[in-house]
């Protein structure tokens, strides 16, 4: 562990010569050893070769020979290495000589390499470092040599990933009075800051100051960065203040560090304000500072503000780079705003900035998410053709796109291409391929990819096994499905309710309901699997097979047992979808009351049903003419803040017209428009049909035939005008109500005119307008015209309904033989 002992101040001034001499006097062995080492101040002019056997050589002899090469440091260093390679054990004397030679020659890199080799070999020099520095302190180049050696030693420990030892050496040297250069102190503090927590960084920083180091702008910036990383913005600000107090002038990197800290804690707005404020004081920021703010704003989903920063860069004569645009493009891709992402990408390339595989990856991934797989593959091919670098991420996206499009041959070609290029293939990639084959029901190939995955030591996860197991169940490979569960147990991969729920649903998709029910019954007995996820899976399975009654029966049973409770958010989301589907199926079958029970249960479980579920039940109550319950649900929907739309209002209006409650229908129509919702063609059709019902419902004793005709004519003209003023045109359904209305008020001429008008507009009438008009002709006794229309309808391949056929028979219509 790093030692953080505190020692007394041992020197005043930068070079503690008195302390060193005192140390040497107390350690005569070092002085004696040093005396045996040839002096480099009066060097041997003629290099002396080593002629003896290495095993018989003394350290003194090797040191003497090394010293003779002081003018040829490369040869001296090679000789030192050769002796070492042949088994000679260097000691203090030989190390001292070679280090002195390297220091004299300024060979920093060789010095670093020398120390690194020792550290990586065993970490032991065979002597105390204090002895080495004691020897070096006797030379006339003391300050320069000591700085070189201490710097190299600490750098070597740090580069060899012995950071704790580097700190220990720093303390040891500091206690002896040897303080590394400012550059090395900054290097060491930065390494510690990148690898240890803030508390340790603070201790090292405090000890540096204790050893007499005066922090410069770089050291204080490192401290600010460490504080910002731990979100200690107030302390970081104090460091900034300390700079001003000590006369250290902050530079743009200091400000950028603090801005980065603000952005990291979600205060990018404050970072932007500071950036603008400081840049106005003639401090020049490079693109990094602006990119930090852009990235922060994008992460906070403030994309418009982020784009404004891009504009601010240009105004301050800072050229945006690929990272500037990359942050914005990623932000828009995360928000699924493809058009804006593509626009920025095009703008970037027009400015001469080259796209890269990261940026392309954002766009291609979004295209796949939006099911624009063909477009994603087209972009991938363009990128390949351009010769730009394509990494494994882009290959994986392209393979995923092929799998979604069921182009497994192309997917496998790219997969093999990745192997040739030596690109990594991870579990997500294998899972995509397995899923692709499962979607094609090619389980042999899916299993083959899975086996290949295991052989390559790419461990499958629960998602991989869930997809493969689901494919087995869907295609009737039950043995393989349960063998997979055994394999998962062997590799320590636990199954869960989601996994088994997937099995149940896919068994149902494969029309294996009995097997699904057996599995469900087994799992239900196990307390570990009794959860909402499993129950929802069985209900979903019933619905997939059209067994709505069984689905509701299970739902009701679980409700009575009190089992419809789960704390898992993922389970709740899945169950919400299943319950909404159950509501839909119940409403389709006209079982609105049971659908209401499901809705009520969802509300009690805080599932917050969506508008679709509400709309379906409201429509169901409208169909059975229970408008009180329909309106109560409508009010509850509004109260919960869910959105209403034209479709919902139209449904309610239609319901009120059916029960002859004109006032409520008209009030809803007005309310809808007041909320800014424009009626559509269906809404106008419902209003027209409602007015027709209202007119026909009037007592014939009060309103005569001619008055009915006139009222409906006036009403229809007004609605037609309103509809067209909105830029809408009537559809077949609208014309059907119009024709039926004119026919029912005995205005057969008007009915025929609108039928002809419908055909002139290019609409093709179906059986309903034909039926309405034929019934109108039958009602007024014009059987021949009815017969002509019926023949015309049959000629066009439109099938007459049973009612029309019956009417034709009752009126003795003679349809021409076919």
Could you estimate the helical fraction of the residues in percent? over 70%
Average pLDDT rating = 83
Low-pLDDT residue spans: 1-45, 806-818
The number of strands is 0
Q: Main beta sheet: strand number and arrangement?
A: none
Alpha-beta content class: mainly alpha
Global outline: elongated
Q: What's the alpha carbon Rg, rounded to whole Å?
A: 43 Å
Strand content: under 5%
N- to C-terminal separation?
102 Å
- Count of DSSP helices? 44
Kindly describe this structure.
The longest helix is centred in the C-terminal third of the chain and has 21 residues, at 705-725. α24 (427-439) runs parallel beside α26 (462-474). With 818 residues, this protein is mainly alpha-helical. Among the domains are: 1-180, no CATH class; 610-678; 691-818, Tetratricopeptide repeat domain (Serine Threonine Protein Phosphatase 5, Tetratricopeptide repeat), CATH 1.25.40.10. It has 44 helices and no strands. Helices cover 71% and strands 0% of the residues. Mean pLDDT is 83; it is low at 1-45 and 806-818. The N and C termini lie far apart (102 Å).
List keywords for this structure.
mainly alpha; disordered C terminus; repeat; 818 residues; mRNA binding; disordered N terminus; single chain
Quick recap of the structure?
It comes from Asparagus officinalis. 71% of the residues lie in helices and 0% in strands.
Topology record:
Layout: H1 17-26, H2 28-35, H3 59-68, H4 73-85, H5 92-105, H6 108-121, H7 129-136, H8 142-159, H9 163-176, H10 182-195, H11 198-210, H12 217-229, H13 233-245, H14 252-264, H15 268-279, H16 287-299, H17 303-315, H18 322-334, H19 338-350, H20 357-369, H21 373-386, H22 392-404, H23 408-421, H24 427-439, H25 443-455, H26 462-474, H27 478-490, H28 497-509, H29 513-524, H30 532-544, H31 548-561, H32 569-588, H33 592-604, H34 611-623, H35 627-639, H36 646-658, H37 662-674, H38 681-697, H39 705-725, H40 732-744, H41 748-760, H42 767-779, H43 783-795, H44 802-810
